[in-house]
Specification:
The chain is of the alpha/beta class. The chain is built from 35 helices and 25 strands. It has an eight-stranded mixed beta sheet with strand order 5-6-4-7-8-3-9-10, sandwiched between helices. Strands 13-14-12-15-16-11-17 form a seven-stranded mixed beta sheet, with helices on both faces. In the central section; belongs to the CRISPR-associated helicase Cas3 family.
């Protein structure tokens, strides 16, 4: 190895790449752990050149045109993208220069190959240990000065580049914190840092310092450096390169450039150009686009004009009006106009994300996008049936996290982080097309590790948010902060909503425009009222607002018009008599037993849903859900595989294409009120805030217009008793009642009481859809600070005060946690302003009780512990001899698909040992954090388990029951 290092000197010198510092000493290693122990470690200079080559390829083939433009502008190199490209390559090529330090002694195998000159400092440099990312941030400024970044402007740029180098492990550091000089070594070590940097700089064509390097652009470059580093750090690739090193570094660099496209494609990140189809063919929809969709296709293009700074589109329409397809048509126009490629389609829940993933997959296939990277983005996405076991396997990504003090909490966890980003559960946001929960995007503006990588992933796509009304004040602030960053990056945004208050949409639009460069004072004098139904588009560059034409808006209102009969039924929870809640529901559903039909009963809690289901099953059909009974139950407290199957059954039975059941009663919780494509003859709902009641009502007669034109499924129309769409609200407040105790804080008492009064005031008990929707939403959810202090009853005053206090507290909390707005960032450390080592699971995107995943296992009398009550499937165990507690992916999936999310406080009083997972799972990155409910099985019967004063039992038909 030392001979090779010496031999490279004259070859580099002859190529003009070696100056006063000489050739890079290839005994300085970059990768050791996980490689062939019989060979010398992988030289650092080779790894730096690999990363630089990959960064150049990512610039050419992965970044969108918009991202390249934004980075070049952020460097003051507008119109000089080639210069910006070279600087990005330099950032990647210097990312590990901090390894020319005491880092070299953190591996016994690596350090034994060090040259004698460098090895002499062994004892002094091992006295203290620091992360090589911090060492790189400290040393790269001196290195850059030696490369000519020496003027005042160049020094400021060098400081920003040092922040990028220091942030390549996903967390930015303060440059002023410093490290011990001894860790960086003496003259020989400084000379080698310069030699490594000079070789990279020379092979990149000696890029010059840009005039500036603004923070938002530096964040994107950091994300790209992280991605480049991980792609070239995969075990198989490094082992292959380790076995055959080209004698000449220039040849090595050229080979790295040739290898880069294959690595990108193998990671599923290569770009695919769709063959755009006409509307009906693209989405598999019969008939022509509706007026709203046609308006976007015809009129939005003119509104976008020649702007190049992005824009934000708000689409408002009633549930079932085809907003998803409207958004995808808008994406065609916006992506072409603003140079983005692909899109991220984000929704409020995992269930809605799963359904939308299937719809988007079909749309891509219809447009020759079979090879496009489409991924599902939520914490449990890998359990979805869309992922085969072989898709979830991942080779290791050989980072150095865990080799150094302060670099993560353990080797297994550290290795899994990039592995989960590049494969399976964590790659999704990086792929060209991503569908998932909004949480995955909101982490981009929380101070978690790799938030820069998330911003890189999002800034190259068109950003679509469905159900924009479904987020609490805390999440709305985070969404606004994310829109601010996307506005700074010129990313086109589409917001979809059926019930969004004007005050919320106005705030979100202004956040985007502020990010795009508009002054806060000027924006405070403007408002951006959105038509309903219709769309509003605001250009990022000019701030000019345009909207759907009045003619198309009226056409949409007529085409989708519906008179919704709203009936308020006073009920009593837990009591008897005619007003008892269950008695009222049974009375309302009695026509179904006699004449058939479909009904959706929406409950506010899982417990209420379970009790309602059992009562209706006894009344209408003795058979259980799994036995094919006409009464079905759907909520979030089923094991994942059961919930997925039940969601599929419900959507098929009440979907557009049928087959339509003769009679069906679906009892559900809030899981059905968003994005699930259901049509019931009647909807019965517990009292909820008015916007949610309208969402639930959107599942009533949803496809009537379509069926009226194209025929009902199975030629079976509505039953005679269903004379029109009807929403029945079970109101425990009207008539002097109160909210049931079991509802707890599910909904604000103020919103519930205001909704109750608003419903009572609806003239004639009829709501005109869409004409009355926005006024009703504003009446309950609008930004109205005027409280009627003359309202009788101290409880109303107390409820209003509690509601406003909670709103203010949530917004304040989000404001404290979120990263600063894009144009307010001074040092990149501002993106990690909280103390500690926050990782993605340590900062929440939602307020409320923390949740854990619970596995319900079964303990048999012979001591066996199984996944099933019959005792046929033993709990899988990690192989004793496998490193890191390895377990086949299929076994991990088998366990995780049976888990249930529950509130963490349910288990707080339990003996930790009584709910701990098997010992062999404790080193597994997914299984280690599970809680296990060990249910005894006696004489074939599953017994409940007492936990914290309550009992828990997994019922095959009702899901997890808590009593």
């Amino acid at each position: 190895m030392r001979a090779l290092a010496a031999g490279c000197g004259w070859l580099l010198e002859g190529a003009g790449l070696v100056g006063e510092w000489g050739a890079p000493d290839e005994s300085v290693w970059g990768k050791s752990r996980g490689l062939d122990p019989g060979l010398a470690p992988y030289p650092l200079i080779r790894h730096l050149l690999d990363a630089a080559a990959m960064a150049l390829h990512l610039w050419d083939a992965y970044l969108s045109e918009n991202q390249r433009v934004r980075i070049a502008e952020g460097m003051g190199l507008a119109g000089e993208v080639d210069r910006a490209r070279a600087v990005v390559g330099l950032c990647a090529g210097l990312h590990d220069v901090g390894k020319v330090s005491g880092f070299q002694f953190c591996s016994r195998h690596g350090s034994q190959y060090l040259s004698a000159e460098l090895g002499r400092d062994r004892e002094r440099m091992r006295a203290e240990r620091f992360g090589h990312d911090v060492a790189g941030a400290q040393s790269v400024r001196e290195v850059l000065a030696g490369l000519g970044f020496a003027g005042d402007e160049e020094l400021r740029v060098a400081e920003r580049l040092a922040e990028v180098v220091g942030g390549h492990h996903g967390r930015f550091h303060r440059l002023e914190d410093g490290i011990a000089a001894a860790f960086l070594g003496g003259v020989a070590w400084a000379r080698q840092r310069m030699a490594h940097a000079a070789a990279v700089h020379g092979l990149l064509g000696a890029p010059q310092a840009p005039g500036v390097f603004k923070a938002p652009a530096a964040v994107l470059v950091t994300g790209l450096v992280i991605l480049a580093d991980w792609l070239v750090s995969q075990e198989d690739y490094l082992r292959k390169r380790q076995r055959r090193l080209e004698p000449v570094l220039e040849d090595h660099f050229q080979r790295s450039q040739r290898d880069a496209p294959g690595l990108l494609a193998e990671a599923g990140l290569a770009r695919v150009h769709l063959q755009r189809k006409e509307f009906a063919q693209a989405y598999g929809i019969q008939g022509e686009p509706n007026p709203l969709q046609r308006s976007v296709m015809d009129e939005l293009r003119r509104s976008v004009g020649e702007g190049r700074r992005g824009g934000i589109l708000l689409v408002t329409a009633a549930p079932g009006d085809g907003k998803s397809e409207t958004a995808l048509e808008a994406e065609r126009i916006l992506s072409k106009a603003f140079g983005t490629q692909g899109y991220a389609f984000l929704l409020p829940t995992m269930a809605t994300s799963d359904q939308m993933h299937g719809r988007v997959a079909q749309a891509l296939v219809r447009q020759s996008g079979e090879e496009a990277g489409l991924t599902l983005v939520h914490s449990m996405a890998w359990l979805n049936s869309a992922y085969a076991d072989e898709d979830l396997g991942a080779q290791s990504v050989l980072t150095c996290d865990g080799d150094e003090v302060g670099q993560g909490s353990g080797r297994a966890e550290a290795d899994m982080r990039p592995q989960r980003w590049l494969r399976g559960p964590k790659r999704p946001l990086l792929a060209q097309f991503a569908v998932g929960t909004i949480d995955q995007a909101l982490m981009a503006v929380l101070p978690v590790r790799h938030n820069a990588l998330r911003l890189l992933a999002l800034s190259g796509k068109t950003f679509i948010v469905d159900e924009a009304h479904a987020y609490d004040p805390y999440m709305q602030v985070l969404l606004g902060r994310l829109l601010n960053w996307l506005g700074a990056y010129g990313v086109p945004v589409v917001l979809l909503s059926a019930t969004l208050p004007a005050s919320v949409s106005d705030r979100l639009i202004k956040e985007y425009l502020q990010g795009a460069g508009h002054k806060t004072r000027a924006l405070s004098r403007q408002t951006f009222p959105a038509p309903y139904p219709g769309w509003l588009y605001v250009d990022g560059a000019s701030g000019r607002a345009t909207q759907i034409s009045p003619v198309r808006r009226q056409e949409q209102a007529r085409a989708r018009g519906m008179e919704l009969d709203v009936v308020v039924e006073p009920v009593v929870h837990g009591g008897g008599g005619a007003r008892a809640r269950l008695a009222v529901i049974e009375r309302l559903l009695s026509p179904i037993e006699e004449e058939g039909g479909t009904a959706l009963v929406v409950c506010n809690t899982v417990g209420d849903a379970q009790n309602t289901y059992l009562s209706l099953r006894e009344c209408f059909d003795q058979r259980s859900h799994d036995q094919g009974g006409s009464v079905q139950l759907l909520h979030a407290r089923f094991p994942g595989e059961v919930r997925e199957a039940r969601t599929r059954e419900v959507t098929q039975g009440l979907g557009r294409s049928g087959p339509r059941p003769l009679r069906r009663i679906v009892v559900a919780t809030q899981v059905v009120e968003q994005s699930l494509d259901l049509d019931a003859d009647i909807v019965i709902s517990d009292l909820a805030p008015l916007s949610l009641l309208l969402q639930r009502a959107g599942r009533c007669w949803r496809h009537e217009n379509h069926w009226a034109r194209h025929g009902y499924p199975d030629v079976r129309g509505r039953p005679a008793w269903a004379s029109g769409p009807r929403l029945v609200v079970l109101d425990p407040i009207t008539g002097g009642g109160s909210t049931p105790q079991q509802w707890g804080e599910v909904y604000s008492e103020h919103l519930l009481s205001t909704t109750s009064r608003t419903l009572a005031g609806i003239e004639g008990g009829t709501v005109s859809i869409p004409g009355d929707v926005q006024d009703l939403v504003e009446a309950v959810h609008g930004d109205n600070e005027d409280f009627d202090w003359n309202t009788p009853g101290a409880s109303d005053t107390q409820a209003w005060t509690a509601h406003k206090g909670k709103d203010i507290a949530e917004r304040s909390m989000a404001g404290l946690l979120a990263v600063p707005r894009a144009r307010s960032v001074s040092a990149l450390h501002d993106l990690h302003h909280l103390p500690g080592e926050e990782d993605e699971w340590e900062v929440s995107t939602r307020l409320g009780a923390d949740s854990v995943r619970l596995l319900c296992a079964y303990v048999h009398q012979d001591g066996r512990v199984t996944l099933d009550p019959e005792g046929e499937h033993l709990l899988p165990q990690a192989g004793v001899s496998a490193a890191g507690g390895a377990m086949p992916v299929s076994s991990v999936r088998e366990v995780m698909r049976r888990t249930i999310p529950v509130r963490a406080d349910w288990l707080k009083d339990a003996d930790p040992a009584s709910i701990a997972p098997p010992t062999s799972w404790t080193q597994h990155p997914m299984l280690a954090d599970l809680r296990v409910l060990y249910q005894p099985v006696q004489a074939g019967s599953v017994q409940p388990v007492k936990v914290g004063g309550k009992t828990l039992r997994l019922d095959e038909d009702c899901g997890l029951v808590r009593r």
